[in-house]
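Deviations from the work plan: none for this task. Representative record:
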Amino acid sequence: MTARPRRAPPIPRAADRVQPDAAALLAASAPRSDALHLVEVDGDDHLFLVDGSRLFRIDSDLRIRLERATGEGRLAGILAELGLDGPPLIDDEPVVNPPLHALSLAVSQACNLGCGYCYAGQGSFGKAPRRMPLETAMAAVERLVTGAPEGGRVTLAFMGGEPLVNRPVIQAATRHAVALAAERGVRVNGSITTNGTLVTPEDGDFFEEFGFAVTISLDGPADQHDRLRPFKDGRGSFDRIMANVAPLLKRQRRMQVSARVTVTPDNLDLPGTLDRFIADGFHSVGFSPLLRASAGQNEMGGDALLVMLDQMIACGAAFEAAVMAGRRYPFANLVNALREIHRGTHRPYPCGAGAGYLGVSADGALSACHRFVEDDSGAMGDLSTGVDAARQADWLRERHVHRQEPCRSCWARYLCGGGCHHEVLGGGRTSCDYVRGWLHYCLETYLRLSDARPDWFAGPSDAAAAP
Amino acid sequence: MSDQNKRPTILDPRNLSAQLHYRPAGNPPPATLDTTIGNTCPGLEFDFRAAWRTLLGGVTLLEHDNLVIATEPAFAALKGRRLLRVDGKPVITKVIGPSTDLTTTELLTSEDYPHGVVTMEWSNGFANVLRKVGQSVACDFTARPQEERISYEQAVKDRNVQAFQLQIRPFFTANTAAIEPATVPAGVMTQGLCSPWQNDYRECVCYYWASSRPDFVNAEVTPTGEVRGDNWMQKERTGTYVIDNYEDTRMITYDDLFQNWEEALKFQLAGRDAPDAIPLPFPKDKA
């Protein structure tokens, strides 16, 4: 059954709804050069050098020279003069034979919710519903842990469908992984992404014991969430989830319970959602636009993404005020972006999918990530024969951001990595303006906060931590 | 390579990757991580380790060890003791690794390191307190002069720990990447080099120089696939590599270096001896 919005607000046209902030960001973040991007904050000019994601304060004379040289296609000379030349930090070579460090187990290819937008076709990935047998999960654990070097760290993730449909396998696989890892001097991080409808207090005890990262899929307060994430019979799921999750939120010490919000045109009140879930005690709250739905329903188009950008900026303003006041405000998107900009993260891929991170289907097939379960385009071998090295090499070569368009000429390519493989392969790149606008905003915020609160960046790298 | 000494403008690195790859005006090309020579031992240029010896106000440490070798009068009692922790972070560590038969992982000891304890390189050991310039931080020393290196845990067990508050001196001149001359006066980073310094060319003749100074030069592949070439330190370029031995008369000697290094040694361009016709950039020192 497909959820129908009971109160779907009309998507405003950009011209009559969008605040100047988002529109201005789109203009300021438009791609002009593949080598650099210029950012002005409070009257100061800054250079973002794409190679190495390096950020510099510059003077206005240099900005004018860089703008002129960009227009005239003679940047190389100025960059050499500035000592910013040299071999690129990211070349065309794909990652080769990456070590495996994370597996996501689709322990249940079935789900009790009927979310209209689900990329997994309501949990079963277009096949008959099934659960992962224990021996398959154990084989996955052994492949993950025994392949890790002594002193290494691996992540064992459980997804679905709804993974808690297959609770005994989650628990047995986790215990086996931890025991096997202890023998080998390897550390295991457990994580689970769940819809929250089946979570029990005993699950909370288990997640706390093993320090799980628990992600609850929630799409806003009850009215918004229930439109998007109802049970298969159409009933709302919000109240049940919140009642189930409340004991975990109180209990979390080692475990971290976070909320992940899939943003559609039907739930665009992001500041309200963020405030609500932070007040509820979630460790962090993150938003992700729905760019590709299996039924094509409720996907975020250009106008809706512009509204979302406005909403994200409003969330960012609240975050910035909180950090300035020394309060914790775990807006995960901005926390993570600021940490990455601070480090100068630069990468040729958007994530570890198909490299150090693979998905495992209930039948034991390996895929590029949890989204490519039962999808031939991301097939990577299976547990019995191991990773298909040829397919993996093809994937890493083809998915390198230097082979993507229009990424090759975009200043944001090493921060973005080219966008989610699953969304891009399914529907192309539809959110580049949004991504660039958001990253431009994050660069501005970084420059303000790193001046005003350098202590925040020196703090723990915990994704949602604040002083 | 670009000439940043001519840099006309402000270029202030803001995030970590910009700082990591930044070459401040005046620094030589091998001043960044991806161009530097990969060692910290005394080289021909300077001994960087010595720059850290006086970071803690009042005491002077050995450049490669946690031993206090000199003090200001107020801290005279610390001479001969060993520094164990700074601001709660250890400056020493136990060395754990594979046993010689590769069957187990164990504490690695030797005659010089009977407790398997080594001093961390100072730029790592002091990394956390660099941001506390001007502040006093707790420094744990052994409570008495200590000849052998011991672990912090052992010192605690032996009741051999005493804390002192020492002030962190500035390592960098404010708002620059230049080493602060008040903390590291001129000459400190060269005083530990071989004397005369030309010894280093002889002592480290082969298997030592990193990418910037190949020891196997003028290499050519013959039609049979053999690679022929010269040892940089052999007097005659014969195309046959001479394995180094300081007593071998085919090699440049200590005396050759002391008396005539400018002519004995050859610059290398793209792995080959540069032509002798390249003029020296400075007058030869007749002394």
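DSSP finds five helices and 15 strands in chain B.
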